[in-house]
Amino acid sequence: MDKNYKKYVDEISPKPTYAKNYILAFIVGGIICMIGKGINDVYMNFFDLEKLSAAAATTITLIFIGSFLTGLGVYDLLGKRAGAGSIIPITGFANSIVSPAMEYKREGYVLGVGANLFKIAGPVLVYGIGSSILFGFIYYIYKLFV
């Protein structure tokens, strides 16, 4: 009976359109990156920021835009259509931080928003920072003996 049920589920489940998903992810991810490059160029050409300062300002701006669009519910709609194209750029990171916080905002700012702000992105940050410390320590030891 278990095999029959699996066969039945496979028959009635909608088949994903892989080619369409790949193309949409590529286009949307590319558009987000083009917007980021445009913002970077504005900071460099109109605000006379150096390359590193413009990159930092661009990152901050993209995080703000991603968070703001998540708050309005627009970024989630984009994610449903574009899939991976919306989660790869830094705006996807902003979305992964803001979404859980918004889900629990009714529980208050401390126990709701504050406690759930890094629910999804937290482990990524912990392991990223932890591995950078580990590799930095290994590099430091290596430089002592070479």
From TrEMBL:
<dbReference type="InterPro" id="IPR014203">
    <property type="entry name" value="Spore_V_AC"/>
</dbReference>
<dbReference type="InterPro" id="IPR005562">
    <property type="entry name" value="SpoVA"/>
</dbReference>
<protein>
    <submittedName>
        <fullName>Stage V sporulation protein AC</fullName>
    </submittedName>
</protein>
<feature type="transmembrane region" description="Helical">
    <location>
        <begin position="52"/>
        <end position="75"/>
    </location>
</feature>
<feature type="transmembrane region" description="Helical">
    <location>
        <begin position="120"/>
        <end position="142"/>
    </location>
</feature>
<keyword id="KW-0812">Transmembrane</keyword>
<feature type="transmembrane region" description="Helical">
    <location>
        <begin position="21"/>
        <end position="40"/>
    </location>
</feature>
<keyword id="KW-1133">Transmembrane helix</keyword>
<keyword id="KW-0472">Membrane</keyword>
<dbReference type="Pfam" id="PF03862">
    <property type="entry name" value="SpoVAC_SpoVAEB"/>
</dbReference>
<feature type="transmembrane region" description="Helical">
    <location>
        <begin position="82"/>
        <end position="100"/>
    </location>
</feature>
